[in-house]
Write a structure and sequence with these properties.
Blueprint (H helix, E strand, L loop, with lengths): L2 H9 L18 E5 L2 E4 L4 E4 L2 H4 L8 H11 L13 H11 L8 E5 L2 H18 L7 E5 L8 H6 L20 E3 L7 H12 L3 E6 L3 E2 L5 E2 L6 H9 L3 E5 L13 H5 L5 E4 L11 E5 L1 H5 L21 H16 L2 H20 L5 E7 L2 E6 L8 H11 L2 E2 L1 E3 L2 E4 L7 H19 L1
Parallel strand pairs: 3-15, 5-6, 5-7, 7-10, 10-11
Antiparallel strand pairs: 1-2, 2-3, 4-12, 8-9, 11-12, 13-14, 14-17, 16-17
């Protein structure tokens, strides 16, 4: 065991981690990185096949992104956006406005995905208050949903279906209407019917377009979203798309909403926004929503919400350069090619294994669901540990092994991931 691991356990509290067992699980302690690999304090290399929790889109130490941070350091690291502006933040908002599937967009910045969702909830709630419409105070979300771990976003999440212990906080969570998750083929039809039935009380519907990531990579067909979009239009219910995980090319298009034909009233972005460099998220509001907040200076229509580091200049500079790289290069072409390769390899190498129940894939978001014969075997955790021993960093969601490599992953690295995954499954499951 590394001395660094002991020092870590003595002072750091890791999120979503049982610290009583932290050292038993042989954590890697990262010192540096190159390309698609993390390098620990002992010099061992690990292929980052989860993009450092789905954020590192182009790999580590990307020269163009490194330079963007350095250039901004010579200007200013941070200045408040509360009542004032910053040039690079304006440039980033303009660049986002040119590509998001939102009508007449305005961007409210925050620092993480849960905060972006929390902002969307408050905006949707106040939108109806500003419009003078009473009773529009509820939300509709889907089974298995996970939208973050702040109280509002936790309320949207499925306490029973997310697997993250949200049920413990039921006394804090506000109730929402709950349609089925993507494991039910009729999920979006049911959601649309619920919109029609409960429109008078709904402030908004919140969905994860195409993929419910934290639910174990549950996926819906793009065409199935049309009925929900039409229901929201017909009954004048706001649509919120949570693309914290699916945005910035992860599913094969810049935003998953594009494949679904969705033009949300509110779009939540995070994770890959800065390419994994700095914490930044955003809530993008349509012009219709934004206009409802215009009024007298400091009047009741004002959105009294904002964070000290919202719109941080360093984060904005690297996010702007990242967006330019994604939209100006062949990143999306590589996603398509590597997704097809990954799909074919998983079908031929992993799917036939007796221990594998299902494989789900969209773009470079994949989940390999294992089928343990009994409770408490922790196959997902053990398979990922066996993969780490072989130099590939994976992470489980229960007994679903997640594969989410950088969008710039190369063919040889895809082959390596699948071979290691196969060998790790075989070792653990016998």
């Amino acid at each position: 065991m590394s001395d660094w691991a002991k020092r870590d356990a003595a002072v750091v509290w890791h999120g979503f981690t049982q610290m009583g067992a932290y050292l038993e699980n042989a954590p890697i302690i990262v010192e540096r990185a190159e390309g698609h690999e993390l390098i620990d304090v002992d010099g061992r290399r690990y292929l980052d096949a989860i993009s450092s929790l789905w954020v590192t889109t182009l790999g580590h130490r990307v020269p163009e992104l490194d330079e963007a941070v350095r250039r901004q350091l010579d200007l200013v690291a941070h200045s408040t956006l509360l009542g004032h502006g910053n040039r690079v933040v304006i440039e980033l908002a303009e660049a986002l406005a040119a590509v998001v599937p939102v009508d007449r967009p305005h961007v409210l910045f925050a620092s993480d995905g849960a905060s972006a969702v929390e902002q969307a909830l408050k905006i949707a709630f106040q939108f109806w208050a500003n419009a003078g419409v009473a009773g529009r105070t509820s939300y509709l979300a889907l089974g298995g949903a996970y939208h973050g771990d702040t109280v509002g976003s936790l309320s949207l999440g499925d306490g029973d279906g997310s697997g993250f212990g949200a049920g413990l906080f039921d006394a804090l969570r506000f109730p929402v209407l709950r349609a089925p998750g993507y494991g039910d083929p009729a999920a979006l039809e049911v959601a649309a019917a619920m919109v029609a039935e409960h429109a008078a009380q709904l402030a908004a519907v919140v969905v994860e377009p195409l993929v419910q990531g934290a639910a174990g990579m549950r996926m819906a067909r793009p065409k199935d979203f049309a009925v929900l979009a039409e229901a929201c239009r017909a009954h004048d219910v706001l649509l919120v798309c949570d693309e914290v995980a699916t945005g910035f090319g992860r599913t094969g298009t810049l935003f998953a909403s594009e494949q679904c034909g969705l033009a949300p009233d509110l779009l939540c972005l995070g994770k890959g926004l800065t390419g994994g460099y700095l914490p930044m998220s955003a809530t993008v509001a349509s012009g219709r929503v934004f206009d409802a907040f215009l009024g007298a200076d400091l009047g009741v229509r004002t959105l009294f919400h904002g964070h000290s580091y919202g719109g941080n200049a360093l984060a904005a500079a690297v996010a702007l350069r990242h967006l330019q790289l994604v939209t100006e290069t062949d990143v999306l072409s590589n996603v398509a090619a590597r997704s097809a390769q990954l799909s074919a390899l998983l079908r031929t190498v992993v799917v036939p294994m007796p221990a594998v129940a299902d494989v789900r894939l969209r773009g470079l978001m994949a989940g390999v669901e294992l089928a343990p014969p009994g409770e408490g075997l922790r196959w997902g955790r053990r398979v990922c540990a066996a993969a780490v021993e072989r130099g590939v960093l994976l992470r489980p969601l229960g007994d679903v092994v997640v594969v989410m490599p950088p969008l710039t992953i190369i063919a040889a690295e895809i082959e390596r991931i699948v071979v290691v995954l196969r060998d790790a499954i075989a070792e653990v499951t016998g």
